[in-house]
Amino acid sequence: MKTKIDPPKITDENSLLPQQVHTLQSKEEISHCLISDSLIEYQEADRVSFDKVIFRNVTMAESTLHAIELTDVIFENCDLSNVNFSDAFVHRTEFRNCKLIGTDFSRGRFQNVRMVDCIGDFASFRFGKFKGTAFTNCRLVSSDYYQAGLTHVEFSECDIDQATLAGCRLKEIDLSDCSFTGVHVDIEDLAGCIISAEQAASFAGLLGLVIKSDTDQ
Q1: Of the residues 44, 53, 72, 214, which has the maximum number of CB atoms within 10 A of its CB?
Q2: What's the pTM value of the predicted model, to 2 decimals?
Q3: Is 140 exposed, middle or buried (0-12, 13-18, 19+ CB in 10 A)?
């Protein structure tokens, strides 16, 4: 059963004002604009708020945007690698074909969020709170969800090899069409997790099981 996720409330892109942004100030509010082909680097700011904004072909680098607030926002073809977004509030936001390598979303709150065709290797979502979030066709190798609350979260056709899911309750989380050779989980959190028959061997070691193949007869 698919989780209902409300999309960003941006009904007409043409109504957004084109804007170039290169510097950010704490508690700055930016709304109703299209930010494209921009480089935002070496910024440190707290509680910057973006409302009804599209980021297109934007690179953020060497920046800490602590407790950023994103509401009705779309990121398209953006590079947000290694940016510190810790304690972010992210609502009705989509990340499309973005680089999120090593991005720090720890302790973030995510509601009605989609990440599609993104690369999020080594991204941190530790201690995050998710409610209505979908990861679709994303590469999330060694991403970290330690003790995150995963409520109505979907991982669809994602590479989650060596992802850390320790401390996450995985009941009703469907990993059956994801690829991985192993993930880091706690045995007590596996109850109700949905996996494929082929993936069962990856979890057997956690239970102390030894799988014997027909060739071992």
Answers
A1: 53
A2: 0.92
A3: buried
* Distance (Å) of CA 103 to CA 10, 17, 175: 25, 28, 22
DSSP character for 145? -
Which top CATH class is 23-198? mainly beta
191 or 146, higher pLDDT: 146
Phi and psi of 181, rounded to 5°?
A: -95, -20
For residues 186 and 147, give the distance between their C-alpha atoms in angstroms, rounded to a whole number: 10
Collapse the DSSP code of 32 into the 3-class scheme (helix H, G, I; strand E, B; otherwise coil) and give the result. Answer: strand
For residues 208 and 193, which has the higher predicted lDDT (pLDDT)? Answer: 193
Residue 69 CB neighbour total at 10 angstroms:
18
